[in-house]
Design goal:
GO molecular function, one term: sequence-specific DNA binding
Strand order of the largest sheet: 2-1-3
Structural class: mainly alpha
Largest sheet: 3 strands, mixed
Family: Belongs to the MYBBP1A family.
Number of strands: 5
Keywords: Nucleus
Pfam family, one: DNA_pol_phi
Shape: extended
Distance between the termini: 64 Å
Helix content: 55-70%
Subcellular location: Nucleus
Number of helices: 59
Length: 1269
């Protein structure tokens, strides 16, 4: 082999110089930019490909060089068979554009070059796929060139080539047939009749065999109906039409094949939709639907054929007439769709509902016929499963219904609610439901289910803002739902339209409860609904009012008053008592008085009070007693609030003419209502408070925050529930410990008292926990026993003396009285403890509700100046919650408060930007927050205080430039602008905090806090950098020194900090940091984890410094640092793998020192040592030296000495003995082999023991042989 290579090299050296390549066409002289076009055409990014195609065509237009044009044509044709899909499509598009622009290029020659380059006959087997794609994309490029229809012969050759490509379906699938369809759609009638019809004769004749061939026929029928007349179809198919009973079996099979072919794509095959259009043109739609779809496709098991039927149902909606829509929507396809809807509710099932909703939505958007819209909406509504429609009540397709269709649909729903005609619905039942069916009970439940769904659908129409509707329709919905929720008809009257429609089946109690809840949901939606139509109120974007300015809820209350007055015709389900009716009338009087005031001067105060009265009043139909109490509380709270405000005014020396702000009165009322445990009042308060948020004052906000303040007592905070005191807790604890022993004695004495079993069990558990015994009770018990002489003493000689019966009865009476009294004490203490616990739960629940108000205010009025007064109260809540109990409710309260503070306040997008005159106050608050953050013991609480300080800094700085919303780099002058921040004062404050963190061993502050400060406020970062750099070595512990390195690293990485510093300052800073790092690396010993972490942070800072100094060529001396770093590895201790070692060597690499490769040498040495040890070790499976054959030849070596008798005899007995010895040795060898095999299969410990035993046996055997010898 070597000789051959030498001869070859010799031939190369001796050969003559290669002749110069001639470039006749100038291909090799193309510029680089021109060649790059073809590289970009093959790139995966679509935008780059299209841009390259445009640039290539533009370049060829301007250059006008035929060589470049020919090279481009050849290069594009070659690229059609590229291995990547993106590249193939790119070259095809480029070739199509080239042929379209340069008409001098012949399509015939281009097609010939495609066939020649991608010849399927001569291509190797592994390149067949690429060649097939090359031919296909070549034809595709010709068809997209917009010139193909001008050359009929080229069209014919393209069609024939596509026909030949159909045999490569595993690679191309149905792409050739689709391209043939596209070519047909662009071909003229003359070309098709004269040229293509004969070529496509075989495909058209066998059109009923495959979906592709049928699609070709259907497209030809659609495009050239005058050519493919019934007589021509008779010759091709044997029938004059496509949709006939004779063709139906073949059509069904073709549809099934098409359905299975798109199983993964989840699309409607084009052949199915074209077949549907043909059936409509031939007026055979009903036969096609019944025979092909219902009897053919739906006869299969649920799967692709069913999904094709569903897709065909959705796609045919825009094409059908009203009668055809009614026929389709009442056929078996809808029933199967309903069954699919039920089965698809299970997990991991394919759900077709989103596709059907998309089909219906497109139909509603594109259809202007109200009758068709109504038929489709009713068709899906009447598809029911035991009375309940399978389509959800919240159906978004209704958003595109016209006003007239929606009006008719709502009227149908109301009529169906009153007189349900389930026999007209397309109802179905599952197999399990059919087995458990009961006639009468089932019919009643079906009606109830149907009514519940109708109410939900009406509610959805009323409260959905996207559905276009008029105010009269919304009011009609609200009246209908309210009437059937709370009233029954006595006698119809035209004054109340809801009474004219009699109920065929009475409304049951459960249905009425569902209607009631739906009404209040609709009412909530109306309160937040914008004004319908184009009016002045709509322009003001007021919520919850009509176009004339009246509130929706007021209109509902007026309707309710009319119903209450019409007692002859209607009757309330829950009759109101005279007191409740009086409360209702007084509520109406208050509302009317407020409306009069509002007419004189429009004020949000009147609107808020009206809303509050109306919301509480309308709840009277659901909970009359509770609502009446709320109305009474509403009035008393207003009076108390007025009295409280008047007292404050007198205390402050204000004049009696001034009145408290109306918002303060409303807030007092809301807080009083929130103290009651009711979901109803919580919803009312939330709705009202959302309206008055923009008008909140400082006093009103203070009353809210006082509730949350843990440092204020009950009177000041407004909480009516007392909290437990520490002393009271202590007394309770001592009394419980004292009483638990007594309960045990009671249980022993009186076991028949079954009512106290649970208490005794609890007391037994308390005793088991080791609590102390009540000494007072013990003394009382001792006195009773001593008084009856029932207590044994040491003086008594024997304990055999017993009390008589009278004494025993007296003793029992005294003991029972004592234990009964003790039990009452214990029960009283337990009741008190339970009461206090419940009160505490109510107080905490009340505070959680108040937190909801705080969150709503922050979300709606985050930019208000009142927000600044909420910082310290929220921090006080968080700090107190961290140190309080760990119950679940307490944790939820703390988590909610912390989330509101962090996300709604500190991280809010909108914050206060108007602080005129409050700069000194905010600076004082900032200093208080930083000071408090340093005094805390918990770092998590300190983080909240530090975040609050940064929030105040952001408020003081304000909007410096537009960079708040964009991340564009800022100029140094913009960066230095700090708004209204007293930079010197704030810098001093944070410097003290940083010094405290670096010099105190136990500081609640963390390095992450200062990193956040440095990244958000570069000006303060520049001012505090010197302090941070000094603490790289001056930190009290290694942890603080490492944090100083991390803080300095983050500052040096900031571009804003770099822009704020001059070149001289930057150089001086880098030199100072280098000196500090060199000092910190001296005599360092990585003893523990803390030191290693500090070293890692210092090395990361060092790495950044060295890289910056080298890249920017700063005048910084690094020699001392390099020397210290080298000395750190003097003993080779930093050559092991690890984070510290890797960081160290990455720094040394910047100095040009690479990590020595010592591992390979060690591996070689270890390999040599292992080889030597393996040589020394005995090989397993061999006999020891004492058992080898050479032992028997020892006598031959010892010449001149006496030989054993066994060697003298050569025959006779000696021969027999030799045979016996051989047999014995063979036996021993077999035994040894068996033992060794056994030891190989044993565990390691057992194997070692057996080997030791075998060695001992061998030694003994050798001794015995020596003794024998």
């Amino acid at each position: 082999m070597l000789a051959v290579m030498q001869t070859n090299m010799g031939e190369i050296e001796d050969s003559t110089v290669r002749p110069k390549v001639t470039d006749a066409k100038g291909i090799l002289k193309q510029n680089r930019q021109f060649l790059d076009y073809f590289w970009d055409i093959a790139k995966p990014e679509r935008e780059i490909r299209l841009k390259a195609v445009e640039d290539l065509i533009e370049h060829l237009k301007q250059s006008e060089k035929p060589d470049e044009l020919q090279y481009s044509l050849k290069r594009l044709v070659d690229g059609l068979s590229h291995t990547r899909d993106d590249a193939r499509s790119g070259y095809s598009v480029a070739l199509a554009q080239l042929l379209s622009v340069f008409e001098e290029i012949s399509l015939k020659s281009t097609l010939d070059s495609v066939k020649e380059k991608h010849n399927l006959q001569t291509a190797k087997k592994k390149f067949i796929r690429n060649a097939a794609f090359g031919n296909f994309f070549g034809v595709l490029a010709l068809s997209q060139s917009t010139r193909l229809h001008k050359e009929p012969q080229v069209v014919l050759e393209c069609v024939r080539l596509l026909q030949s490509l159909s045999q490569y379906r595993e690679h191309l699938r149905d792409l050739p047939r689709k391209t043939m369809v596209d070519i047909l759609s662009e071909t003229s009638k003359e070309v098709f009749e004269e040229v293509l019809l004969s070529a496509l004769q075989s495909d058209l004749t066998s059109a009923l065999n495959t979906p592709e061939q049928l699609e070709l026929l259907l497209v030809a029928l659609q495009k050239f109906p005058s050519v493919l007349k019934p007589k021509k179809l008779k010759k091709l198919l044997g029938t004059t039409a496509v949709i006939t009973k004779e063709n139906m079996p073949k059509l069904v099979e073709v549809l099934k094949t098409a359905a299975r072919s798109v199983k993964k794509e989840n699309i409607l095959p084009p052949v199915a939709f074209d077949l549907l259009q043909v059936s409509l043109r031939e007026d055979n739609f009903e036969m096609f639907w019944n025979e092909a779809i219902i009897k053919g496709m739906l006869s299969e098991m649920p799967g692709p054929t069913h999904y094709l039927s569903f897709r065909l149902l959705g796609a045919c909606l825009p094409l059908l007439s009203v009668a055809q829509l009614e026929f389709v929507l009442s056929a078996d396809v809808m029933t199967h769709y309903g069954q699919h809807m039920l089965s698809a509710q299970l997990a991991d099932r394919f759900k077709f509902a989103p596709e059907m909703e998309k089909y219906v939505s497109e139909f509603m958007q594109g259809c202007a016929d109200a009758d068709k819209q109504l038929v489709v909406a009713l068709g899906f509504t009447q598809l029911t499963n035991q009375g309940y429609p399978v389509v959800p009540s919240c159906w978004k397709d209704l958003e595109h219904m016209g006003l007239s269709a929606l009006q008719k649909y709502v009227e149908w729903l109301m009529e169906a609610f009153c007189k349900p005609q389930l026999e007209k619905c397309l109802d179905f039942s599952t197999r399990r439901q059919k087995g458990n069916q009961e006639t009468e009970a089932e019919s009643d439940s079906c009606v109830a289910r149907f009514r519940k769904w109708i109410i939900l659908r009406l509610t959805f129409i009323g409260e959905n803002h996207q559905i276009k509707k008029r105010e009269d329709l919304v009011m009609k919905l609200a009246r209908f739902i309210f009437f059937h929720a709370f009233f029954d008809v006595k006698k119809p009257t035209p004054e109340i339209p809801e009474t004219t429609q009699a109920l065929s089946v009475p409304i049951d109690q459960q249905t009425r409860a569902a209607i009631s809840s739906a009404f209040y949901g609709l009412l909530q939606g109306l309160n937040t609904m914008a004004v319908l139509g184009d009016s002045a109120e709509a322009e003001r974007r007021t919520l919850g009012v009509k176009a004339d300015g009246s509130m929706w809820i007021y209109c509902v209350v007026q309707y309710a008053t009319m119903l209450l007055d019409q007692s002859k015709h209607v009757q309330s389900v829950q009759t109101l008592s005279p007191e409740q009716r009086q409360g209702w009338d007084s509520m109406l009087g208050s509302v009317e008085a407020l409306r009069k005031k509002a007419r004189k001067s429009s004020s949000p105060e009147h609107s808020a009070f009206q809303h509050l009265f109306l919301l509480v009043g309308i709840q009277m139909f659901k909970a009359p007693e509770e609502s009446l109490e709320l109305l009474n509380d509403l009035r008393t709270c207003m009076e108390k609030a007025q009295a409280k405000k008047s007292k404050k005014k007198k205390a402050n020396g204000k004049s009696s003419e001034e009145e408290p702000h109306w918002v303060e009165v409303v807030v007092e009322i809301l807080l009083s209502l929130l103290s009651q445990p009711s979901r109803l009042t919580r919803g009312v308060c939330k709705a009202v408070f959302s309206r008055i948020c923009p008008h909140l004052t400082q006093e009103a906000l203070s009353s809210i925050l006082d509730v949350l303040d843990p440092n204020k007592d009950e009177d000041e905070s407004g909480v009516m529930v007392t909290d437990e005191k520490k002393e009271k807790k202590k007394i309770h604890k001592e009394e419980e410990e004292r009483d638990e022993e007594e309960d045990d004695d009671v249980e022993d004495e009186d076991g028949s008292d079954s009512s106290s079993d649970d208490d005794d069990d609890d007391e037994d558990e308390a005793m088991e926990e080791g609590e102390e015994v009540d000494q007072n009770f013990r003394l009382d018990l001792m006195k009773v026993l001593q008084g009856q002489n029932a207590l044994a003493t040491e003086e008594d000689g024997s304990d055999e003396e017993e009390l008589d019966d009278a004494a025993m009865m007296k003793l029992d009476g005294s003991l029972s009285a004592l234990f009964l009294e003790q039990k009452k004490k214990i029960q009283a203490k337990k009741d008190e403890k339970d009461r206090l616990r419940k009160e505490k739960v109510l107080v905490r629940d009340f505070k959680i509700k108040v937190l909801d108000m705080v969150e709503m205010f922050l979300s709606k009025q985050g930019s208000s100046a009142l927000v600044l007064g909420m910082v310290e109260p929220l921090l006080s809540v968080i700090e107190n919650g961290m140190s309080s109990e760990t119950s679940q409710q307490e944790q939820d309260f703390l988590r909610k408060a912390a989330d509101i503070f962090r996300n709604r306040l500190c991280r809010a997008k909108y914050y206060c930007r108007e602080i005129n005159g409050r700069e000194a106050e905010l600076h004082d608050m900032l200093e208080r927050l930083i000071g408090r953050a340093q005094k805390l013991t918990d770092s998590s609480v300190s983080l909240y205080y530090f975040s609050a300080a940064l929030y105040l800094l952001k408020v003081l700085r304000g909007v410096v430039s537009e960079r708040d919303s964009a991340n564009a780099p800022s100029t140094p002058s913009e960066l230095r602008l700090m708004g209204k921040v007293d930079v010197e004062r704030v810098t001093t404050c944070f410097r003290n905090a940083l010094t405290s963190f670096m010099t105190k061993r136990k500081s609640p502050l963390t390095g992450a806090m200062f990193i956040d400060l440095f990244s958000r406020f570069p000006v303060l970062c520049v001012n505090l950098l010197d302090t941070a750099v000094e603490n790289i070595t001056a930190g009290v512990r290694e942890h603080q020194q490492g944090q100083a390195c991390a803080v300095v690293l983050r500052a040096l990485q900031s571009k804003d900090v770099k822009n704020l510093m001059s070149d001289a300052q930057s150089t001086e800073l880098h030199q100072k940091v280098v000196d500090q790092l060199a000092k910190s690396f001296e005599d360092v010993q990585c003893k523990n984890k803390t030191v290693r972490e500090k070293m890692v942070k210092a090395l990361e800072l060092c790495q950044h410094l060295v890289r910056v100094v080298h890249s920017q060529k700063l005048q910084v001396n690094l020699e001392l640092l390099q020397k210290v770093l080298k000395s750190m590895n003097a003993e080779g201790s930093l050559q092991k793998p690890g984070q510290l070692e890797d960081t160290y060597w990455s720094v040394m690499k910047l100095f040009g020192v690479l990590k020595p490769k010592m591992e390979k040498v060690k591996k070689v040495v270890e390999a040599e040592q292992t080889e030597e040890t393996t040589r020394k070790k005995k090989k397993k499976g061999f006999l020891p030296e004492t058992k080898k054959r050479k032992n028997r030849k020892k006598p031959t070596v010892l010449e001149g000495k006496e030989t054993p008798a066994s060697t003298e005899t050569a025959g006779g007995a000696s021969g027999e003995e030799g045979k016996k010895k051989k047999k014995k040795k063979n036996k021993k060898r077999k035994q040894q082999g068996g033992e060794e095999e056994g030891t190989q299969n044993q565990p390691a410990t057992k194997k070692a023991k057996t080997q030791q035993q075998q060695q001992k046996k061998k030694k003994k055997g050798g001794q015995q042989e020596a003794d024998g010898k």
